[in-house]
Amino acid sequence: MKLALLLALLPFSSAFAPAAFTPRTLTPLRSDAAAAAEPEAEEEAAPPAPAAPAYKCITKAEIMSEPNCLEFGSVWDPLGLAELGSDETLAWFRHAEVKHGRVAMAAFTGWVAVGMGAVLPGDLTRAGLHFADIPKQGLAAWDATPGLGKVQMLILAGLIEFHDEIFASKRGDNKHYLRGGIPGKNHVPGLYDPFGLSSRRSEEELKRGRAVEIKNGRLAMIGFMGLYAAATIEGSVPLQPLP
User: Fold this and answer.
1) Model pLDDT, residue 14
2) Closest Cα partner for 55 from 182, 179, 183, 181?
3) Of 193, 200, 30, 229, which is closest to residue 111 (Cα–Cα)?
């Protein structure tokens, strides 16, 4: 009897036995802020912002402030070229204007000097061509110059331009016309001022000298074009003296 009772209660006793323990991996709890910040931390760090340039180009207002335009009452710019591009663009325009003005002044002076009969002594070539044999008319004088002589003049101009950029870049003091320097300034030592006369002038005198040079260069460009037109197109320039 007792044995039968124990066998009857055996299935019910297993329900109260402790279940086998199975270890599990615990997932750590994180706050919403930490979970949102984690992907940002995993991203690559943004590259540093580029440093601002150590130079500052001359501004448009500074360039347009000289020379004064009292002759026209305002700035004469019918095509609006001064409004194109950045400060560097206008600085390049002014630099080119000054250089073209210098070339025009030299060309106008040479044309007039040759027309007045001024010649260099000696021979121009080893073949027996004398400087005195060169015609007095400007274009005729250029045509009579041997090709090698023309090439020499072009090479000389190119060397001046090339060394101007080299000396300006090696100075390291931001004197290049696109790096804060004055447009039109030539950095080849002793080329335009071999005796250092400009070092004795005040800043006001230097400023006035730059303005005078720009105005004379503009007038020389107009004058040279007049000489060229008179020599190539008959009657293009009025009030010409009779031959």
Assistant:
1) 47
2) 179
3) 229
User: For residues 222 and 229, what is the distance between their CA atoms, to the nearest angstrom?
Assistant: 11
Cα dist from 72 to 76, 106, 212, 218, whole Å: 7, 26, 16, 14
Please provide the distance, in angstroms rounded to a whole number, between the alpha carbons at the two ends of the chain: 160
Tell me the C-alpha distance between 184 and 90, whole Å: 12
* pLDDT class of 24 with cuts at 50, 70, 90: low
SS3 state of residue 53: coil
* Integer CA distances (angstroms), 41 to 32, 37, 197, in order: 15, 6, 64
C-beta atoms surrounding 23 within 10 Å: 5
Confidence of residue 158 (pLDDT cuts 50, 70, 90): very high
Q: Across-strand partners of 130? A: 123
Task: Tell me the angle at which helices 203-232 and 87-115 cross, rounded to the nearest 10 degrees.
Answer: 60
Instruction: Tell me how many degrees the CA angle 85-89-94 measures, rounded to the nearest 5.
Output: 135
Q: Say what the pTM is.
A: 0.71
User: How far apart are the C-alpha atoms of 183 and 210, rounded to whole Å?
Assistant: 10
CA distance 96 to 102: 10
